[in-house]
Amino acid sequence: MKKVLIISILILSSNFVEAQFIKEKSINAQIGYGISAPYNTIENSASGGFFIQSELILKAASWVEFRPYAGFILTNATDKDLNNKPINERVESQAFLLGGKVRVKAPIPWVAPYVEIGIGTSIGKFQTVTAYDNIEKSGIIYHIPFAFGLELGRNNNVDLGFSYYFQPAVQQYTGALAVGITIPLNKKV
Fold this sequence. Notes:
Elements: H1 2-14, E1 24-38, E2 47-61, E3 64-76, E4 90-105, E5 110-129, E6 134-153, E7 158-167, E8 172-187
Antiparallel strand pairs: 1-2, 1-8, 2-3, 3-4, 4-5, 5-6, 6-7, 7-8
């Protein structure tokens, strides 16, 4: 009980403390084409859908950012593979995504490549039916986000990238080809 109380106090008090190493804050909104695919497949199964996400960007330096995020992915299985041939496998996700990532980028104006990794949770419904797995799960599972792409524009405020969320508990990954825009909240001098 003491541990729960201490953790609760730390979480609540952290909202009142502002880290001194954060130089800028921004919000990034992304939208794109979502996809779900199994780890193990013999029929090249995948399902397409919709992806949307918002991130709070906490810029620590010109080359590193912390990014808590919230998003949603919706993919629906079809009875055809990526080559439009009939298949027996199914993979789909309908999930709310929460977590945090660290982005490392080359601080170059106009075109800045980046890579990011983190940890998060997926809350929703998942199905992975292949020759290797038969998983149907609802609830909360963890995921490992990984992304790479380019920040475009003079101030790198347009984001074009690939985001992946590896979900070992359901033997699938979800991802997206997404475009986003960054809106600055404030700047510290």
